[in-house]
Amino acid sequence: MSTLDDKAEETVEQVETTKCPEKEQKNRACGIILIFFVIGLVGSLAVGWLIFPKLLYSQKKQPIDFNHVVHVAAVEDGCESCHYFREDGSFSGVPKLAQCVGCHEEAQGENPEELKFVEEHVTKGNEVPWLVYSRQPDCVFFSHASHIKMGKLDCVVCHGHIGESKHSRVYEENRLTGYSRDIWGKNLAGLKKDTWDRMKMDDCAECHAELKAKGETVTTLPWPINWMPRPYEKPASSQVRVNIQKDACFVCHK
Amino acid sequence: MKVCRRSFLSLIIGGAAGTALSPLPLKLMDDSSIWSQAWPWTPVPEDGEVSHVGSICTLCPGGCGITVRKVNDRAIKIEGMKGHPVNNGGICVLGLSGLQLLYGPTRVKTPLKRVGARGEGRWEKISWDEAIAEVVKKLGGLREKGKSHTVACISGTDRGTVAQLLGRFLTVYGSPNFIRIPSIQDSYELTMHLMQGVQASAGFDVENADFVLSFGSGLIEGWGSPVRMIKANSKWKERGKVVQIESRLSNTAAKADKWVPINPGTEAALALAIANVIIQKSLYNADFVKNYSSGFEEFKQMVLNEFSPDDVSGITGVSASTIESLAKSFAGSSKPLAVCGRGQGETPGSLNEFMAVHTLNALVGNIDKKGGVWTVPDPDYIKWPEVEMDRIAANGMSKARIDGAGSKRYPDTRYLLDRLPNAINSGKEYPVEALFVAGANPVYTIPDSKAVKEAFNKVPFVVSFSSYMDETAVNSDLILPNHVFLERYEDVPTPVGLQKPIIGLSKPVVKPLFNTKHLGDVILLMAKAFGGQIAKAFPWDSYEVCLKETLGNKWDKLINDGFWADSNFRPAVWGGAFHTPSRKFEFVNKGKAESIKIEGDEKAYPLILMPYDSMRLASGFIGDPPFVIKTVEDTVLKGKEIVVEVNPKSARGFREGDQAILSTPKGSVKVRVHHFNGIMPGLVALPRGLGHTAYDEYLADKGVNFNELIGPVEDPVSGLNAAWGIRAKLTRA
Ligand code: SF4
């Protein structure tokens, strides 16, 4: 930029001394060039930061507006009352209709959303096509059991305070990938404040690296966090179960 | 304001700088990579509840336990069942691809009635009621005319409740013509019958054997229970030796400790020469021979006189010193085991060869001993009341079998399917008026395809119970599709070659996808429609009821574990093991052990064509699913052309990859030539399992069916097919 400005000053000087009409024209042209540069810059920044997100994500409403607060208050086991582990240790995820029917065979109150739920789904036996904010791509293997049961992690760490929500948030679907905006995070620059702000591989790795530094037995990824395995590195201690050996990728990518 | 080129460039540069400072490039790159990894059209299982169902694979007689992973109602993957006595977690490539046989394009989705000419492929969809009524009407008509014996049934097996129901139906209906698909099981059963006086299968304690002498058996190419054998082979690598006697360097030969190339068809002579050395050097088990066998002296004289290593060396091409060293290492091992049956064992083979090989096991006393050959009795859980036959049925059952099994000529043989086409075509016996085919694809698997088709065309009413549009189904009049193995209950008794009796239970992993019906239920419905004694023989409401009742207290264990093993089973002790008239093991000497003469004139056909088997080619009643056919290398199948192996010495001017015409007395086909030093000069080898004309586009019209080029050769003692090859020639295309 500075060179451009210098040049501009130089040109102005020349124009003043010589008063040459040709030079004057040139000077004006340079101004115009600069203006165009700024237009390009500002325009593309606006596109990148403001328009692109609007284009990339479509806004979808959940089929039924769900109130977590009411439900958490009504059940005994907190999140696990509905989002439970099956007998074989696998995680049930979003409840199926069969679970809801236990209480909602008939509408319990006057809430229009509940009435809609009973009418459209319970009576007709149609599963609710919930939009899952945290659904990961198919290539990702994630075990809730090892994180919740063994790692004693709280649901909030990854899912935030969803249990305190009174209404279902708008589901922003990435038009290209079909996954929720929650995976990349609300902030398009990839910045985050809380652990639940993003759910990308780097976010998994961050936590695992921290734990490893504390000497915990966890799966760790090679650092820097990328796809390059470091096959020659030996596990730091015999405690580290699955480490940065060449099979590390297949722990999470089956 | 004049906008010049430079302004425009400046706009672009500004735009580029702005874009770089926005999240757009990084985000788009990330999203595109996710997008391209998960194209919307890539089939991925839906999200849902994962469950596992334990069952048994019945795609081959191996009887492996499987665990099928499901997401919601969809089966996603088949894996080997951990802890199953046959395969303990292992699985073969065919079993692994089993889902393609469930969801693939080759299923018959509803009962079909032929409307065009036979084999034309024009069908009319009919209801189950119509289909069953049609069969009953046809069969009823034959019965009224006293022709019930003209109905025949070809079945993949004669064991388990479904096959037994089928056999029972035929009996009360009045036909003696229940015919099992041939295999080495026939020869082994007969060997056990003649030498040990038992009606039993041969089981091999392969896991404990430490010296395996294989006479051409494809130990890791699908012989016996394929996955079990591959696992046993890994054990032998650690502690044990394998000697493969075979004319071609098969995978088994390549992985063996020693490969002994032999002139094809002379294996029986080699076995007897080995016996000669063992006897001459007194290396045999004296206790067994002296106390538990009979006919040894005669046998001894015979092998000493006729099978000296020197003489046999001339016949077999195996040097006398090799014969001696084989005999010494075999007899000198603590748990030696000799096995035979070529390749995957689909051709029964020469009975003399089986008996000669079994004699080796007897000489070293490893009958019913650890690491040896065990007598495995047929499972006895099927205890249904005797059928009561009416007059017509009794009359029909008194007729001779059309295939000649049990006749004066072949009194001890139970089934002779390979003789059926000729019996029908020659018209010497009575005609076959109706034919049922279940769990088998004889139009493809029986040698001399031309004769088989001709015979099929002579049968006016053919009913196929196949789940797939296979060659036999295509050539039938009515298809009554059975559920596939992942949709039905079925008991699977002891898999071929296993040394202990077990029962497996195939379970429905998914609900039937189409309008198919369990063969067991179809039999019950047919019987009910007949009424009278026939209906009385089938007192069950449904097949499931019948199965549960039959399995009795084993049911719960079978449902929970997938298999039931007799924990009390021990191999018989020599004192009571043999049920021959002498109550001893018989060194039977039925005629001279001549090699089986193959078809064709040596002058006109200078080469010998032999088949070979591979784990990647399913050559039984199931054809290769798409995944498996993909694994076939291009030295076997090049594009759609089949490749034959020839030794460069007998290639006669054919270069690698050349096209040629391969002719035998049975037919001619186009092939490509592959030079292979691992095959003995004078031989041509052709893979089995190709050349399907039916099934789907992935399998049909690829290569040549070996059975088009060969016909059966009757074994003089058993009547079973003993053809190990046929004379052939290669000419320019
Ligand atoms: S060996 Fe046979 S039974 Fe076992 S998995 Fe393979 S096809 Fe199925």
What does it look like?
The complex is a heterodimer of chains A (254) and B (733). With 254 residues, chain A is mainly α. Chain A has a domain at 134-251. Helix content of chain A is 44%, strand content 3%. Chain A has ten helices and two strands, in the order ααβαααααβααα. Chain A has a two-stranded antiparallel ribbon. In chain A, α1 (2-18) packs antiparallel against α2 (21-56) and α4 (97-104) packs across α5 (112-122). Chain A starts with a helix and ends with a helix. Chain B is an alpha/beta fold and 733 residues long. Chain B has three domains: 112-182 and 384-561, Rossmann fold (3-Layer(aba) Sandwich); 185-378 and 572-586, 3-Layer(aba) Sandwich (Dimethylsulfoxide Reductase, domain 2); 607-732, Barwin-like endoglucanases, CATH 2.40.40. Helices cover 33% and strands 19% of the residues of chain B. Chain B is built from 26 helices and 28 strands. In chain B, the strands form seven sheets. A seven-stranded mixed beta sheet of chain B has the order 5-4-17-16-15-6-7, with helices on one face. A six-stranded mixed beta barrel of chain B has the order 22-27-24-26-25-28. In chain B, β9, α8 (226-238) and β10 form a beta-alpha-beta unit. In chain B, α5 packs across α21 and α7 packs across α15. Chain A binds chain B through residues 29, 32-45, 47-49, 52, 56, 86, 88, 90, 92-93, 96, 132, 135, 137-139, 174, 176-179, 184, 188-190, and chain B through 1-4, 6-8, 10-19, 21-24, 26-28, 30-32, 34-35, 37-38, 40, 44, 47, 49-52. Bound molecules: iron/sulfur cluster. Residues 57, 59-60, 62-64, 87, 91-92, 94-95, 226-227 of chain B line the site of iron/sulfur cluster.
Layout of secondary structure:
The complex is a heterodimer of chains A (254) and B (733).
Chain A: H1 2-18, H2 21-56, E1 57-60, H3 68-74, H4 97-104, H5 112-122, H6 144-150, H7 155-159, E2 171-174, H8 181-184, H9 201-213, H10 249-252
Chain B: H1 5-20, H2 24-37, E1 50-56, E2 65-71, E3 74-80, H3 93-96, H4 98-103, E4 112-114, E5 123-125, H5 128-144, E6 151-155, H6 160-173, E7 177-180, H7 184-196, E8 200-204, E9 211-217, H8 226-238, E10 241-245, H9 251-255, E11 258-260, H10 267-280, H11 286-292, E12 293-294, H12 296-306, H13 309-316, H14 320-332, E13 336-343, H15 351-363, E14 373-377, H16 391-397, H17 420-426, E15 434-438, H18 442-445, H19 449-458, E16 461-464, H20 471-474, E17 478-479, E18 490-493, E19 502-506, H21 519-530, H22 532-536, H23 543-551, H24 555-561, E20 563-565, H25 574-577, E21 585-586, E22 607-612, H26 626-629, E23 637-638, E24 641-646, E25 659-664, E26 667-675, E27 683-687, E28 726-732
Parallel strand pairs in B: 6-7, 6-15, 9-10, 9-13, 10-11, 12-21, 15-16, 16-17, 22-27, 24-26
Antiparallel strand pairs in B: 1-2, 2-3, 4-5, 4-17, 8-14, 18-19, 19-20, 22-28, 23-24, 24-27, 25-26, 25-28
Helix pairs in contact in B: 5-21, 6-21, 7-15, 10-13, 10-14, 10-15, 13-14, 17-19
The site of iron/sulfur cluster has 13 residues of chain B, from helix 3 and helix 8.
